[in-house]
Design goal:
- The protein is an alpha+beta fold and 183 residues long.
- It has helices at residues 77-82, 122-133, 162-169; strands at residues 28-34, 40-46, 52-53, 66-71, 90-95, 106-110, 116-120, 139-144, 156-160.
- The strands form two sheets. The protein has a six-stranded antiparallel barrel with strand order 4-7-6-5-8-9. Strands 1-2-3 form a three-stranded antiparallel beta sheet, covered by helices on one side.
- The longest helix is centred in the C-terminal third of the chain and has 12 residues, at 122-133.
Length: 183
């Protein structure tokens, strides 16, 4: 029997271009979601079906969407606690090609650029670094995190081309199915 929560998500059906639109848009939007611990986060939702898209879905990079759980918050607790990493807040991606631990390192700072939250995880950093190093523009928002003055235990971000990110942040189209977790 399929767990009810699993039925809330787009299946991994082998359709590699499912999230790529032929018209340059995207069939996805970011929506507010309460995770199993009750924390408010942003999740991708497919407009046509109302199904959620898991942050590790391997089809997202094909659509130019990079979602990453950050790593190293513990080592940057003071800066992370000082920054604003609430869901929906813009964050800055900073390439660190000379980072001694990872030549693909991408640091994530709050919108002010003063507070380092942590780093894009190594798997996604390789993809994001390739895009940034090619001179392409990426913008990012926090999809999980906390505000200033609150311990920063877990931060996740979503990065995409600025036009695509604006679209992802728009409200879902009128008449789109209601996601199961909101029913």
């Amino acid at each position: 029997m399929v767990d009810s929560v699993e039925r809330w998500y787009v299946p991994h059906d082998g359709e590699l271009d499912r999230f790529v639109s032929v018209h340059g848009g995207t069939p996805l939007r970011l929506i507010e979601y309460r995770d199993t611990g009750g924390e408010l986060v942003l999740r991708l939702c497919e407009n046509q079906t109302g199904l959620l898209v898991g942050p590790t879905d391997t089809r997202l990079p094909r659509a130019g969407i990079y979602v990453s759980q950050l790593r190293g918050e513990y080592h940057h607790q003071d800066a992370c606690r000082s920054g604003d990493f609430r869901p929906g807040r813009p964050v800055n991606l900073v390439r660190e090609p000379d980072n001694p631990f990872d030549a693909n390192a991408v640091a994530v700072y709050d919108e002010t650029g003063q507070h380092l939250g942590a780093y894009v995880n190594k798997q996604k950093a390789r993809l994001v670094a390739r895009v940034l190093d090619a001179g392409e523009s990426l913008r990012a928002v926090s999809v999980r995190g906390t505000g200033p003055g609150i311990d920063c235990e877990q931060v996740a971000i979503l990065a995409a081309h600025p036009t695509l990110l604006r679209t992802l942040l728009e409200p879902r189209p009128a008449g789109a199915p209601i996601p199961a977790h909101l029913r």
